[in-house]
Write a structure and sequence with these properties.
Length: 59
């Protein structure tokens, strides 16, 4: 999505960091501050939804 201009490099980096958290959690490893990671993921998703559904946003 970054290469197509759908997300900024900062958003991409945040998503990749959270992907690592997800992978550790799914495979049964301890994930410190998992609640904060989930909150950050929700914030990122909400930001992207707002951006992509804003009037004038490209389809």
């Amino acid at each position: 999505m970054y290469s197509q201009g759908e997300v900024s490099i900062e958003e991409y980096d945040r998503a990749m960091l959270l992907l690592g958290v997800k992978n550790r959690f799914i495979h049964g490893f301890q994930v410190p501050q998992v609640n904060e990671s989930v909150s950050e993921l929700l914030a990122l998703v909400n930001e992207l939804l707002t951006l992509w559904t804003a009037p004038g946003a490209e389809a």
